[in-house]
Amino acid sequence: MEVIGLDIGFGYTKATNGQRFIVFKTVYGEAAELQFREQLLSDPEEEDYLHVEIDDHNYFVGELAERQSLERYFTLDQSQFVAEFTKVLALTPLANMVERQEPIKLVAGLPISHYRRHRNELINILKGQHPLVVVNKNGEREDTVVRVSEVRVVPQPFGTVMNLMLSELGEVRDRRFLTEKIGVIDVGFRTTDYTIADRTRYSERGSRTTDTGISRAYSTIASKLQESSGVNVELYRLYDAMDRGSIKIHGKRYDLKLVKEHAYSQLASAIATDANRLWANDWDIDRVMITGGGGAVLAPFLTGLLKGEIMPIEPGTDTRLNNVRGYWKYGKRMWTRGSGAKKTA
Ligand SMILES: Nc1ncnc2c1ncn2[C@@H]1O[C@H](COP(=O)(O)OP(=O)(O)OP(=O)(O)O)[C@@H](O)[C@H]1O
Ligand SMILES: [Mg+2]
Q1: Is 318 part of any domain?
Q2: Fewer CB within 10 A of the terminal residue: the chain, N end or C end?
Q3: What's the total number of domains in the chain?
Q4: How many angstroms separate the alpha carbon of residue 290 from the centre of ligand 2?
């Protein structure tokens, strides 16, 4: 039996078995024809080659799809996301991480506002036996079966809270969290989730999802770029450019530093306003934690705007992984803790 945490975000899909992490951009597409494979092979930059066949469809997943697929699937719509995207996005890392037929106990998340609506649907999609083919870099195909025996779906920021509270063994790590009231702001690519962990209890009142993810800033920049270059740059192709602060289109370099600063500070102020309003009654919050990949990007803009004590982000942590780490620890606690007898694989 293997416990897996799976966080299918609009920006990145993250999975872990506690030892290894698989992280890829949440995009997939039709696998390209064989003659392209020669080129792929000789590409020294090639990192993760994620290629699967599911239900007779051949897919490139993540960065490979971004680079090589002619037709690509990417969405920012929650209903479409769950119904059409989760299967490919979930089975790909599971097939790459877990031995054939090994039963998987899975913890996955949904944004707070979609939790009730999509929870059962997500469980139904993921649970059960899923035959598929994994294709490696050399084009060698291997039949496998992903066997998901249990699925637990939790509200997304719950993962970050669990990650704070629990050790790698699923034990309570820091007793401080048992006595404190902590506000969590999870800024993702599309959504921002707000939640309060009040002495380990989850507070409905202080929890909400808004669409103030990083992609909002990306959209502003994409439309500016369309005006100046005439090219409609897909949002998921902007990550590197945003990181670098410039983009080259048709040979011409566009500087993004100023527009980026402006878009990020606007976004941060929208998020801070939402948080301060949502938590107006919760003035007894001990500390506020900023998480999610977008949280790391916006943290410098958010401090000063948010009320209360903000927990500093530990240098060197990839905040995109906070939820998935917590999902895994929670699964560990639920399914393996203190019961050696249950561990028969
Ligand atoms: N090392 C990194 N690599 C790529 N993006 C990063 C990195 N660190 C921070 N980011 C930022 O993280 C954002 C994605 O964050 P995250 O993975 O938490 O979103 P998500 O969970 O996919 O989205 P959502 O929660 O809305 O579904 C990117 O838009 C980027 O701005
Ligand atoms: Mg997320």
Answers
A1: no
A2: C
A3: 2
A4: 12
Residue span of the structural domain in which 223 resides: 174-313
pLDDT digits (tens, 9 = 90+) for 8-54: 999 999 999 999 999 999 999 999 765 655 555 555 554 579 999 99
**pLDDT at 25 (0 to 100):** 94
Whole-model pTM: value is: 0.91
The whole-chain average pLDDT of the chain stands at 91
Assigned domain for 283 exists: yes
Mean pLDDT of 208-213: 95
pLDDT > 90? residue 288: yes
Q: Which ligand is nearest to the CA of 213?
A: 1
Indicate which CATH number applies to the domain containing 38: 3.30.420.40
Q: Where are the alpha helices (DSSP H) in the chain?
A: 35-41, 63-68, 78-80, 86-97, 115-126, 157-165, 176-179, 215-229, 239-244, 257-278, 293-302, 322-335
Residue 297 shares a structural domain with residue 339: no
Contact between 16 and 4 (Cβ < 8 Å): yes
Q: How far away, in angstroms, is 305 Cα from ligand 2 center?
A: 22
Ligand 1 close to Cβ of residue 89 (< 6 A): no
Same domain, 53 and 143: yes
Do residues 286 and 339 both lie within one domain? no
What integer pLDDT is reported at residue 38 of this predicted model?
Answer: 56
